[in-house]
């Protein structure tokens, strides 16, 4: 068995691609140390192969997402060049503005996409402790800052900010603002201009994990999300049809970034949504509060079925670095 482990490790180290990563040891049914070693070795290979495949999918998705705006930019530049090289006396100003506006729009989208990819690459390459700078922060103050920024993204939407009480916690202020902006931007993109988007921060009791937390709640009256799409919302580049389309201007990475930041704060995210009925994202950030009041009786809330159309991500609630199913 030791020789087989050595040969397998050597073949993986000296071959390329997923062919070698897919190899596994035969685990002897002896229950001894060598059996446990082989089982552990296979588990390590499972994790390495999963990470490799995830990285490969990310690169492929990123290439696809960049190809679309790049193709558009090239097309409009080609049109301008053909007009400039033609015998026409001059290009109409309106035509020039139209073509350059598209180039500006698509290049801006590429810039946002690349910036989001860099954020995720940094979080993948380093520990959260190296990225997040924890200090006492006032969540209500940060919410006002995020609300001011999000107000510039709205186009006739009714934006409201609700703060029940001052909330202080240990966290990275800049990243917490980023979470709120991402969630509000996402809500604005998928809510009609006459719709409502609300940001609410408070101290609340999470009835599922029965913890006192700082709560960030972003709700909208938009199109909502089909239940079948909810488990995939935080996957990189995932877009639910009619809910997260490329035409909305998003990069498909915002919710992944938000989740990464929330996990770094040892928090989790719940989603209540239904197609045609709007969406509510609730971020829970655990608080260390002395002399906490007695938790409310939440037996009814905790026992609610998770397969209701109004879906709370209990089965997929993402806490810390683990997923519970």
Can you give me a brief rundown of this structure?
The chain has 325 residues and is of the alpha+beta class.
What does this structure look like?
With 325 residues, the protein is of the alpha+beta class. The chain has nine helices and nine strands. Strands 2-4-5-7-6 form a five-stranded mixed β-sheet. A hairpin with a 5-residue loop joins strand 6 (268-273) and strand 7. Helix 6 crosses helix 7 and helix 7 (173-189) runs antiparallel to helix 8. The protein is flat.
How are the secondary structure elements laid out?
Elements: H1 2-13, H2 18-21, H3 33-85, H4 93-125, H5 128-131, E1 135-138, H6 139-151, E2 158-163, E3 168-171, H7 173-189, E4 196-206, E5 211-220, H8 254-264, E6 268-273, E7 279-286, H9 299-302, E8 318-319, E9 322-323
Parallel strand pairs: 2-4
Antiparallel strand pairs: 1-3, 4-5, 5-7, 6-7, 8-9
Helix pairs in contact: 3-4, 4-8, 6-7, 7-8
